[in-house]
Design a protein that fits this description.
The chain has about 350 residues and is mainly beta. It has three helices and 13 strands. It has a twelve-stranded antiparallel β-barrel with strand order 2-3-4-5-6-7-8-9-10-11-12-13. The two termini are about 45 Å apart.
Length: about 350
Amino acid sequence: MIMEWNRIFQLVLCLVLIASTSFVSAVEQTRLLPVVTPQFLGQSLNNLPPLRLSDNASFHDDMSDMTCAPFRQQYRGQGAWAWQLFPDGLIFPSFLAGVNESRMGGVWNHDKDQGWMWDVTLGGRAPIVRYGNRSKLHPEGWQLDIEGSVHLRLDLENEMDMDANDFRFGLPISYGTKTHQIRFGYYHVSSHMGDERILRLEGMGIPHKRINYHREALIFGYAWRPRESIRLYIEADFAADRGECTEKWHFQFGAEYSPKFPASGIYPTGFLGGTPFAAVNLMLLEERHFDGNITTQLGWQWRGSRNQIFRFGVQYFGGVSEQYEHIMADREHKVGLGFWYDF
């Protein structure tokens, strides 16, 4: 009965976040509509003053402070598809609330049963080659990326002992336009129990056995952006080769609100500017008969000149542990404060 209520709660939370992101984006678009001033009412089009490009005009795709001719030239240059080695930007960005994605980050979590812990991700994802445009904010085309990371858990209540860690390596290929993106590829993940945890359990006389969990998996994901700041996605994960307690299928889907630039009049600009973000991710695991976990995040984010993104905020995690070494353990319910960096 408790598990059924948990699933109902997860579904309601997903729907609430999707509805809220749509509302915020609609408000943002409304604030950006042009205002007709009274001095122009009743005038014919021929009597209106000529439209001039302000010195402070700003374009959203790295095109600020340009006159019309260079603007057209650069726009055409970014739109033309060509082969590029080590391009800027990801055509299919990592899922913001995906706790198994490769990035740099850490969350100081508290679980009602396990106490305080620090869930850390050390790694990243980088583009290797692209056949597409040269845009940083709106990359399009075909692209090969490389990813690698270690996901580890430190026990803050036992001298920061390493509890477990998962090692991940992958080669995703992505294709995308401004509205639709797909990714497919291969990744390996293997789980390991921390030696300090093993020694502590042995000293306490507690029986323990590590799980030889590993996946050699193929993935296929699809993402849709109904608005530039909103992304909805789904991904299937099939393990062609499996280890102990490892089954074939994983599924995840979610929604994100993550503006690419500050909207005038809504969010602050300048060095200390940025935008809010919100994300939810639901993962289903065949190992637990398609039970799974839900992750929700809410906070503030900053974007760099290469479209890298640094985020800071709160996170709730509920369900099957993201540490595959504990995939058969009791469900976790964690609330924490974290930071994440995708470069």
